[in-house]
């Protein structure tokens, strides 16, 4: 085995750069190496701290300080492989915390403890992968319908699963246009419908009207066994049920599954999510895998056991009341931002009860980059997450407003018209702005 | 918004149990709640410590102590969404560490820095999802071939992707039977072949003979544009190239992609992996998603930014030499375990250069549970990972051997014959054992 050390592929020819993997020198002791690496990590920590304090455009809660209290668990590779509701011979898992979290979400979405099945995913996309697969396996000839404002994972999944896909138009608000849905359902009346309903679209934070979708299906003559509804509730899966008190977003209605992100509104260092469905659908994807001593009906197999503990900790620290307070604060701050932008003569839109403020795309890439704004066409948006305090919004406005004056001061360049994107009433361009 | 607090779904009706999410009491202060939760986490930490010290049956390295040094980064939600090789407006990412890790694996698998594309996944399954999707999109009418000893994700993915799937027989060692492969390729000569090659099967740690697979394809008249090879190297993706010095497992051969687990041999608190392919295939799954300002050609979208830092840290601490030492130690310890089991008259198999010892399934479930042994039919296995020191193996044997004597002492029950599972020469049953 001595020859191993003569391996041709040299690992130390390149000069050391902070992000490279560089072979330790023969004389280098472990402590020196560790010190050197920790120095790089500390620099990186400071860089992240700066970036996180200007994090406005992405739907993730950067208020994660508390989770450092859980760091002793990093000593273990915690793996929740397989079904969370089945015990496994693998003992280094956190399934009891996972179940605690799932039970909480089951209560939030009004489904009985013994009527749901679910698991903690790697994020919203895995939930979509799972929910749409359930739909396709239950209705193999079904067509997938989803609005054009859906998350990009939806058309991606249609392609992965070789499903026929119909894009539905959306309204100015960003929600699904049910008139267009109706026309497409009627054309395809001979085939089942698998509908992705957005509870919070990625760019405008619009919520598809679930009741109207159900009514449209009924109007078109689709019985319950001819459709499957998956809710992509990545962003608003916690917010919407808290706001409407479980009247609209609930398993009491004929939905099949819901996918909710854990790192978005609640917050988690690691991307994660909750996928929840009906226990009666549990068998659909089950494969009895003897050698892992569990039934694997998940997408990913090996699953992070730390994420459920982060979620458990976050939910226990805040509780429903704490989260409701966060929702109220975020909505208030979003309205504050909208009002300040409107007041400055900037095209702005904020949907009812939404935390995503859409506005005119800044001309200066420096501002986009500094504040990490997501842009689409002539729009930009800010997601007012719990870490986005009013002070941060003020700093942003203090940065944006004076600079914006310089872009348009000589009148040679005019602000873009956003009437088609966010509606005439929200557009402040030279034509529509009064 | 006052009505929010009147939400019907009560969160505090159940009595407090450690893993439940329980609404904080009105008078409860944050510090009290935190103390209470940390008490539960500390108990859980001690439970994990005990379970991790008896962790023999699963292919994960529990030697994760060093990673606690990175815990300050838990303050941030680090998200590497999209292509790691493209800069993003999102600044709270760790893509430079991810690239450092990918470059290292590119050197290990002999592919030039400017010729590869890859990303850090949530684990081996996501890599398989990605690699097989590449294969299917490049060869849409292709049939997927994989041995019956493949990881359960392979047939699962065939179903997800609506691909025709041919299971290939395997040899006693667990490796793909290329005679059976040949017969199935000839029958389906009119359709392209997508072949999943196992570099370390899950149960026996067998390595499919890549050269023989390539030879078989050539013998059957498949030109390079008529096949795609994905390597599922979850377990041995680091071990095999280190052992054979890059002669066999290399992108110099016509393979399309390789998926390697990060938490298995190297070790990481969080499941993760490396998916690597050729840059020329990068476009195949690309969707230009303007609003995340990046090209997303990954499966999962949002991606954990902590995992690449764990991998970067682990690789930098060990380097190639440290990993080679780990490989040597694990192989030595696996041989030690095999020899001790054989000496005790127990049916045992260990493939050449493997770290997975297959042996007679213990009759006592207590032992299976205590040592977390994976079982399949009448076989059990132990994966001799870097955390499995010889002392742990001795403790296991001290536990197993006296108990085993009691199971078979009266001669009424005889050890199962394992000749069909692991070969006559490895079987120690009353017929084959001398």
Automatic annotation (TrEMBL), chains A, B:
SUPFAM superfamilies named in the record: PLP-dependent transferases (SSF53383)
Modified residues (N6-(pyridoxal phosphate)lysine): 264
InterPro entries named in the record: Group_II_Decarboxylase (IPR051151), PyrdxlP-dep_de-COase (IPR002129), PyrdxlP-dep_Trfase (IPR015424), PyrdxlP-dep_Trfase_major (IPR015421), PyrdxlP-dep_Trfase_small (IPR015422), Pyridoxal-P_BS (IPR021115)
Keywords: Decarboxylase, Lyase, Pyridoxal phosphate
Cofactor: pyridoxal 5'-phosphate
GO molecular function, one term: carboxy-lyase activity
Top-level taxon of origin: Eukaryota
Annotated stretches, region: Disordered: 1-24
Annotated family: Belongs to the group II decarboxylase family.
Protein name as catalogued: Histidine decarboxylase
Annotated organism of origin: Penstemon smallii
